[in-house]
Amino acid sequence: MVAAAAAAAPAGAEESARNRPATGVILLIGDGMGDSEITLARNYTVGAAGRLQLDRFPATGVYTTYAVDSGGRPEYVTDSAASASAWATGRKTVNGRISKTPDTDRPLPTVLELARRAGLATGSVTTAELTDATPAALTAHVGDRSCQGPADMADCPADLRAAGGGGSIAEQTVALDVDVLLGGGRERFDQVVTDGPDQGLTVAQVARRRGHQVVTDAAGLRGVDPGRPVLGLFAPGAVPVEWTGKPAVLGGTAPQRCVPSNPERPVGTPSLAAQTARALELLTARRPDRKDGKGFFLQVEGASVDKQGHEADPCGQIGETVAFDRAVAVARDYAARHPGTLVITTADHGHASQILPVEARTRGLSTTLVTDEGSPLKVAYATNADGDGEEHTGVQVRIAAQGPYSQRVLGVTDQTELFDTLRTALGIR
To answer: What is the mean pLDDT of residues 257-262?
Structure first.
């Protein structure tokens, strides 16, 4: 019956539906989640022949991730700031800069800002601090990613309010009045504003004065009023990871199983999947009947795939990839119930983990995991000198999608082209 109905559809009807503005766009970013990191999580959890939710999208391509210097020449390995700025604004910039031009340091409008101006509901969810590079690229414009709170502005003198700037990332993020902001970084929002009309207040107090509901745990998140902006701050810094294990070392470790828990993760910390589900509920409630055709834009970041990659910690890295995959499942389930939703999943850059033969004698750090299939899996890290932290890599990374405009991710594209896909799918100029 389904096949017959499809055959009877008017010519071009399917193409027209595919290119109709989306009722909602969900962008999921696995920070530092290159092909090696995805394969590692797949092998460990569902097996070499298994498939993650990340693997089940109908349209899959790759995109390039380089940054530029102030003269526009390529910097072949990007950081998260330049990378997120690329899809947030459609422009390349220098490493460390947040949604500003590479040469003149001018603010560039972001897709979230444009969505808000067009009347769409907006949200950002992350396991990093909400002032970290990837979420910051949507909500702020600063010359250096380190300028997260009012006390962190040493590297951004031009961005001080006293100099005519917008202030720190935290201040700019609150001033934007995003409908849903969920993540870590409570310490940044507890800093005191040093200049401008909010001088003397903490950033969190400014948020409350602007009508934001500030919550700090899962129970608080469940109880928020969908009619007012929500600021969820679930950790002082980054949200603690879900899995633990022994990091890689020179000479390797004894074979180990990862521990799917973390004693340093407080009870009441909502998972990334739970945050994503609640964000979607709140954003849907913010557009009561959608008669005006306006939808929502939500970005979801699994940040600590990257952070654990820097630490050469494969168990932490796998656990965060699994947590991210559950958030992908939430997004895909929402799209199944709301067919006009565009879901895109990708990464900002590749990272350091390598899957090697068990007998390989790497010159870097390594460990051997015993997978759920019972097989040994050797993981190595060799992108920096021992003790200096592992580095990003400059490889192209996966981008996959389903829903309206999903065909635009096919082939080899660049991060800047994702901005145009998001903007077009949302129907904004």
So the answer is: 98
Catalytic, 80? Answer: yes
Backbone dihedral region for residue 296 (phi beyond 0: left; psi -120 to 50: alpha; all else: beta): beta
Place of tokens 């444009």: 114
User: Of 27, 26, 38, which is closest to residue 322 (Cα–Cα)?
Assistant: 38
pLDDT surpasses 50 at 380:
yes
List, in sequence order, every residue forming a beta bridge with 356; answer none if it has no partner: 378
CA distance 134 to 145: 10
Q: Which structure tokens are listed for 369?
A: 């995991």
* Residue 405, CA distances (Å) to 303, 306, 422 in order: 26, 28, 9
| pLDDT value of residue 293 | 53
Q: What is the pLDDT of residues 308-317, one digit of tens each?
A: 999 999 999 9
Angle made by CA atoms 350, 236, 132, in degrees to the nearest 5? 35
What number is the average pLDDT over the span 333-345? 97
pLDDT > 80? residue 294: no
Q: Decide if 244 contacts 261 (C-beta within 8 A).
A: yes
User: What b/e string do you get for 80-111 counting C-beta neighbours within 10 Å, with b at 16 or more?
Assistant: bbbbbbbbbbbbbbbbbbbbbbbeebebbebb
Single out the catalytic residue among 36, 80, 99, 124. 80
Query: 272: exposed, middle or buried (C-beta count within 10 Å: 0-12, 13-18, 19+)?
Result: buried
List domains and CATH numbers for the chain.
Answer: 24-244+261-354+393-426 (3.40.720.10)
**pLDDT score of 19:** 63
Cα–Cα distance for residue pair 225/266, rounded to 1 Å: 24
What DSSP character marks residue 98? Answer: B
pTM score, whole prediction: 0.95
Burial class (CB in 10 A: 0-12, 13-18, 19+), 261: exposed
| Other residues' Cβ atoms within 10 Å of the Cβ of residue 322 | 21
pLDDT tens-digit profile of 348-371?
Answer: 999 999 999 999 999 999 999 999
pLDDT in tens, 264-288: 999 999 999 999 999 999 999 976 4
Q: Which long-range contacts (CB under 8 A, 24 or more apart) does 189-192 make?
A: 189/130, 189/149, 189/214, 189/231, 189/233, 191/149, 191/150, 191/151, 191/152, 192/150, 192/151
Burial class of 372 by CB neighbour count within 10 A (0 to 12, 13 to 18, 19+): middle
